[in-house]
Amino acid sequence: MQSPSERYVALDLGSNSFHLLLAEFRDQRMVRLHTDRAMVRLAEGLDAHRHLNPVVSERALTALTRFQPVLQKLPVDHIRVVGTNTLRAAAANADGFLEEAESILGVPVEIISGIEEARLIYSGVMAAADGPPRLRCIIDIGGGSTELVRGSESPQQLQSLEMGCVSYSRRFFADGLISENTVNHFKRAQRAARAELQGLQHIAAEAEVIGCSGSVKAVSRVLNGGEVADIVHEDIDRLAKEVAKVEHIAELELPDLDEERHPVFAAGLAILHAIFCELDIQRMEVSPYAIREGIVHDLAGRLHGGDRRASTVDAVVQHWQIDQNQVRRVNDTALKLLQQLRPEYPLEGRQRLRWAIQLHEVGLALTHSSFRKLGAYMIKHADMAGFSNGEQEHLAYLVRNQRGPIKAPKEHYGFHPSPDLLLCLRLASIIHRDRTERTLRGINLADQGDAYRLQIEREWLDSSPAIEELLYQEEQHWQSQTRPLRLLAV
């Protein structure tokens, strides 16, 4: 039996349900050891101002308490908890909920973008796909969003659409009515879903179509006598017509429909039928895997030399032809300064500093005068595979503040920028501002408790008068910070 340290936990905080997966790898094959699900319907608790209803929040926190014993048996770096559509929408107003969730679980909750969600779904489904690589279209209908991915050996197109079984239930079936007088809410939901799919008709063309997750599986079971099997176009046509005739959701009498799925089934079916019609799908396979399995594969990659974030940064560097010699100079110096300042600084923080340095001049490809602002904007809003929203925001903050006055951050859950990393990046950028090689011999950076102290030998400063002036300017920039910088020439 493998040791617990070789196991991984993925926890998906979805808009409809929370899913936990405990898995391990045997001969490079993932084995699912334990799964658990809580039907939370988080999206039901999101009001017009994107605040979470206290009742729904408490329901969600209770579910997390149930999952916690599984997480506490593993190292933190073997666990990943991700929040998807509803938590993306509520992130700015959900600090209290997220902090309580982190306190219960003992690990941070990462809010991920819709595109990152789609990538992880694709990775999970492909882990169960048989045969040689071929063109596939993956479809996942969640509680708040629907992800569609087209790809072969790797994803080629990723889409995240604002339609899900819970959000559409609230929008079209709020009173439980499916058909009333001249208004057919089911058909309205179908039309809305088809409108979202405009321009995406090609995404399933000539591809093997695979569906995954709760709504797809629920429809499959209803159509296939309780078994999860392929969904055929004419069968879902027939089911959609039957459901559209029912007056109220409570009157739905469908064999093999899970009671917990009952309240959101009509909305999920309307979306799935719209996808079949708009994308001209004749048959859909149903995968047993989804985002949880993708998260586990991603975690294993991070710990065994296949961190997707690193390859994403490398791709950006190559695309924008960033000066690799300058990256090397600034990186070497910044990491040496961080080693002086915090010898035991966590690996994840050192990685973040390296990535920020690799990307710190990305804006120069388009502008010189405002390259820091542009670079930060590009990083914050780009689809960066492997990164959570908070990680991208932190990288953007470092790039934006690599020189000049320090812009005060508006901290929130998932975004607590480190002044240590910022200081090391700024000092290294000053030392190599003229793109010249310089040694750190005679330079020492330390934390005095109430201030940072940068001690430099007078001989070093005399040899670089322009750098000396920039360092004195830097001292001024830090005077407004919680921990100022003091320059000491000896």
UniProtKB/TrEMBL annotation:
Keywords: Hydrolase
InterPro entries tied to this protein: ATPase_NBD, GppA/Ppx_hydrolase, Ppx_GppA_C, Ppx_GppA_N, PyroPPase_GppA_Ppx
Domain of life according to the entry: Bacteria
Residue ranges annotated for the Ppx/GppA phosphatase N-terminal domain, each copy included: 24-300
Segments forming domain Ppx/GppA phosphatase C-terminal: 309-474
Signal sequence annotation: none
Keyword Hydrolase: yes
Keyword Membrane attached: no
Cross-referenced PANTHER family: EXOPOLYPHOSPHATASE, RETROGRADE REGULATION PROTEIN 2
Identification of the protein by name: Ppx/GppA family phosphatase
Species the sequence originates in: Microbulbifer variabilis
